[in-house]
Amino acid sequence: MLHYFNLDYSGDEVKIECLESMFITDLNKPKQINSISILNSETTFCVGMDEGTLDVYSPNGSKNSGMALIQRINCADQGSICKTASFSTDFSRENVFAYATQKGNVYIHDLRVKLDVNTYNIGLKFGIPSAMATANMNSTHKIVVGTMGGFIHLYDVRYNVPMEIYEHSK
Description:
This protein is mostly beta strands. The chain is built from no helices and 16 strands. The protein has a single domain, classed as Methylamine Dehydrogenase, Chain H. The chain is globular.
């Protein structure tokens, strides 16, 4: 079950309104959600699932009219979608996000062209990706990925090789 909420901070108290609740299913079989990220538009979000699909939803018209599936990425050959992260760029504030798979790959996806525009192969020798964050620092776009093996990979997205690989202290 996926719930979409609106938080209103305008008054003296926070008001929470559930805009929509929906089942993510395929032939009446619920799908396990591993990761969810709100994209920078604040209304579009991506959902990474256990069987290797990633769905992108956006509001369907006016407020309270529902959510629409705008894109589905099927990468079942990569295993589960482990993590998702919004990715803000100078040229695209709401159309780009990153996702990591069980096979140790990290992809940057652009919704405008409906393609993965960059791929980073972490490899399973470091462990399955378990955490991910993105940042835009001084017009340099960074992505950092943590693995279950205790490694941290830092990338500058202009290059296809890690800037640094750290082993987290034991």
